[in-house]
């Protein structure tokens, strides 16, 4: 593997360059810690947590990993810029500070109009405590990567391609071209570069590493683990889904009635009756009310099941630790062939 890869392993002190995305609703303490224990690195989807819930989850992480209070916690905490912007500034800072006070090794920011503000907040915290928190930002355009590298001086850039499950930029380039353009534009000693979007096999991971990325971030694939918080009917829907079932649409945010995302952000999830009705022009209030009824009973034809473009290739639930190790072996075998 390239020397770039080694920079990720050194930075996080890990042995496998596979990370679990900080997925709201899917990645909690159980999933994140199992990925870390596998040799990869797990992040908590903490974006919409209350302070109490985040404290509790970090405490669970500490217990599972057996980490004492004075040592770094080997997981990251993911924050969404526009959700932070929707809070009073003091409350947003408080939420980030919980991860920092708990010594999370990394924080992750995405989808905000002013992510630099939060990056700076973490840098200031580090200056006042003498610590070093690893800062990730997820983005989808080369121009943004140049700013994050040169002006914000982030540690890790996660290039999110249009194939990605969950929220993302509808106009994002496909992952392979995005990673290539960012790798060629940034200096070798710039931020570590990772790829995310539609990756579900070791062969996929090898392709991204061959393009010069140090590693990868997987989301949807980790939803199909016993440790993910996705309810069982959602997991069954992921297993049954064909590749064509993963669609980008504004139907999801309209139906969920979620707050304003930055311009150009929509979501990728499984096609179901909600999407079909939205495309037919159904009144959004009707969609919302059917969605609310469907949520408690996990009616998969109406709820939102975030899923990336690789969904058609995932056919089984596998424990997170085993999954990471199997993916890595497949990746190494694929790299050895090339
Ligand atoms: C269920 C789910 C929840 C997600 N939640 C977040 C989130 O809270 N913050 C974030 O930055 N990205 C989130 N994402 C996007 C991931 O960071 C990542 O870009 C994506 O999962 C990669 O594509 P893949 O799902 O095809 O592997 C989520 C994705 C999924 C599938």
UniProtKB/TrEMBL annotation:
Protein name as annotated: 2-nitropropane dioxygenase
Keywords: Dioxygenase, Flavoprotein, FMN, Oxidoreductase
UniProt source species: Macrolepiota fuliginosa MF-IS2
Gene Ontology MF: a single term: nitronate monooxygenase activity
Keyword Zinc: no
Cited InterPro entries: Aldolase_TIM (IPR013785), NMO (IPR004136)
